[in-house]
UniProtKB/TrEMBL annotation:
Native source species: Mycobacterium florentinum
Family per record: Belongs to the short-chain dehydrogenases/reductases (SDR) family.
SUPFAM superfamilies named among the record's database cross-references: NAD(P)-binding Rossmann-fold domains
Protein name (record): Serine/threonine protein kinase
Keyword annotations from UniProtKB, A to Z: Kinase, Oxidoreductase, Serine/threonine-protein kinase, Transferase
Gene3D superfamilies: NAD(P)-binding Rossmann-like Domain (3.40.50.720)
Pfam family, one: adh_short
Ketoreductase domain boundaries: 7-198
One GO MF term attached to the UniProt entry: protein serine/threonine kinase activity
Length: 287
């Protein structure tokens, strides 16, 4: 089974937590891993080389192959540098795991433009920039695997995470289109919403919950989505604590009006419009 053997995979935000687990799992299964991490704090401030270097050393000491990269995913130049690292050291890029992230939580009425922009740039722009830099290479070789780190905060919402949730669900919209555009080039694109105990979640969930959420539970699903065998594309998976669960958009049959309805007509039929008791998997009505 080819799996990820000899595949060159970029993992962003791989200096700790989930990214570290992904990088180590991929390397343990034969992948050549670019361990990207800016080395900053949880809020995105600062930078350093220690985090990425430590993971690379862990991989190499276990017989794996990895190289460190310290570029920021939040800019086009940084993303291009990450892909250049893969090409320079390993001669190719086959997969991108867009995991890098920061947190700047706060209730929406206290949200600042700086905190909004910073989170959007790392998560949503980061997913865009790194995948965009890799995309021509994936198309040319007619093979590619893209995995975006979404979040249940984007799928379902979470108090104090308007910026984070918006960015994370934006990545779901991105993989939906990448799956369509990539299909004839052998490229798959999926998203995971991981549940794990990391520095990002240290003060978000009770300790007894975090104790059950080892990042190592998430890594195998990421590994499969990056593998040669995987043909799934355009899907979202909630993964953590032993659970691997697909989530998807559903739609009901709706109500069709022959002419533009009045406000009263909409109100009268609202219970039918909003009823999801017989809903089925959603499809794009215009494509």
């Amino acid at each position: 089974m080819p799996g990820v053997q000899d595949k060159v995979v970029i993992v962003t935000g791989a200096g700790g937590g989930l990214g570290r687990a992904y990088a180590r799992f991929l390397a343990d299964n034969g992948a050549l891993v670019v361990v990207n991490d800016l080395g900053g704090a949880r809020d995105g401030s600062g930078s350093g080389t220690t985090m990425a270097d430590t993971v690379v050393e862990e991989i190499r000491s276990s017989g794996g192959r990895a190289v460190a990269d310290y570029s920021s995913v939040a800019t086009r130049e940084g993303a291009e540098a990450i892909v250049a690292t893969a090409l320079e050291h390993f001669g190719a890029v086959h997969g991108v795991v867009s995991n890098a992230g920061i947190l700047r939580d706060g209730a929406f009425h206290k949200m600042t433009d700086d905190n909004w922009d910073a989170v959007i740039k790392v998560h949503l722009y980061g997913g865009y920039h790194v995948t965009r830099a890799a995309w021509p290479h994936l198309r040319e070789q007619k093979f590619g695997r893209v995995v975006m780190a979404a979040s249940t905060s984007g799928i379902y919402g979470n108090f104090g995470q308007a910026n984070y949730g918006a960015a994370k669900l934006g990545l779901v919209g991105l993989i939906n289109t990448l799956a369509i555009e990539g299909v004839k080039y052998g490229i798959t694109a999926n998203a995971i919403a991981p549940m794990a105990a990391t520095r990002m979640t240290a003060d978000i969930a009770p300790q007894e919950v975090l104790d059950k959420l080892d990042p190592d539970h998430v890594a195998p699903t990421v590994g499969y989505l990056v593998s040669e065998e995987n043909q799934e594309s355009g899907s979202v998976f909630v993964v953590g604590g032993g659970l691997v669960q697909r989530v998807a958009q559903f739609q009901n049959d709706g109500v069709t009006f022959a002419a533009p309805p009045s406000l009263e007509e909409i109100a009268k039929r609202w219970s039918e419009i909003s009823d999801m008791s017989s809903a089925k998997l959603g499809t794009n009505p215009v494509g």
